[in-house]
């Protein structure tokens, strides 16, 4: 009987067509495997909180705890950093962050310490352990929109929970100046993220 063969052929053709339509063209005309999620703004120009960031590519989680900074760390939380997957695919191929790249930094406090340095002892040993979520920061690459801040826009969606639904771009002296002065590549702290340190 040839019916099963015809059905299998039809299914294979349908899958091939679905895959082809799921791809979107990249800047250089080649098909890329993942459609990009690009920044979304309100009519007044505020950035909308990015969707589904927890499904993005995790790149690292730096920590500068209060206990090691005289109780006054500028950024006392774990910084759980994600990059939008479509932008990451382009970065892997080109070594450059494309326009529209989004970095999402979810802030997470440490569990209160038991020792003078702010550390505590858990089953795995002495250290610093993630606690409550504490808002988020987002960075967006747009060389024209954010020319005054090195081509990147910096946004804070609260330093507490819940995260704000929208945020205004921060002035240069609040975020950008530090990235511009000390970040390794294109104002991104790639020195802390082996996945990005090309």
From TrEMBL:
Coiled coil: none annotated. Pfam families: Cytochrome_P460 (PF16694). The keyword Disulfide bond does not apply. Residues 1-22 form the signal peptide. Keywords: Signal. It comes from the Bacteria. The keyword Signal applies. InterPro entries: Cytochrome_P460, Cytochrome_P460_sp. Residues 50-190 form the Cytochrome P460 domain. This is Cytochrome P460. It comes from Stutzerimonas stutzeri.
């Amino acid at each position: 009987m040839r019916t099963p063969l015809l059905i299998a052929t039809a299914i294979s053709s349908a899958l091939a067509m679905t895959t082809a339509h799921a791809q979107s063209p990249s800047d250089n005309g080649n098909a890329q495997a993942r459609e990009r999620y690009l920044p979304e703004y309100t009519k007044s120009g505020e950035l909308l909180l990015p969707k589904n960031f927890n499904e993005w590519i995790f790149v690292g989680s730096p920590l500068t705890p209060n206990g090691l900074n005289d109780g006054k760390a500028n950024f006392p939380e774990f910084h759980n950093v994600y990059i939008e997957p479509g932008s990451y695919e382009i970065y892997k191929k080109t070594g450059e962050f494309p326009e529209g790249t989004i970095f999402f930094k979810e802030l997470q406090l440490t569990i209160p310490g038991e020792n003078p340095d702010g550390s505590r002892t858990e089953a795995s040993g002495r250290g610093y352990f993630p606690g409550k979520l504490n808002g988020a920061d987002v960075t967006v690459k747009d060389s024209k929109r954010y020319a005054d801040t090195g081509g990147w826009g910096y946004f804070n969606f609260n330093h507490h929970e819940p995260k704000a639904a929208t945020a205004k771009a921060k002035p240069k002296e609040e975020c950008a100046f530090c990235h511009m002065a000390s970040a390794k590549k294109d104002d991104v702290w790639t020195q802390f993220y082996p996945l990005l340190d090309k």
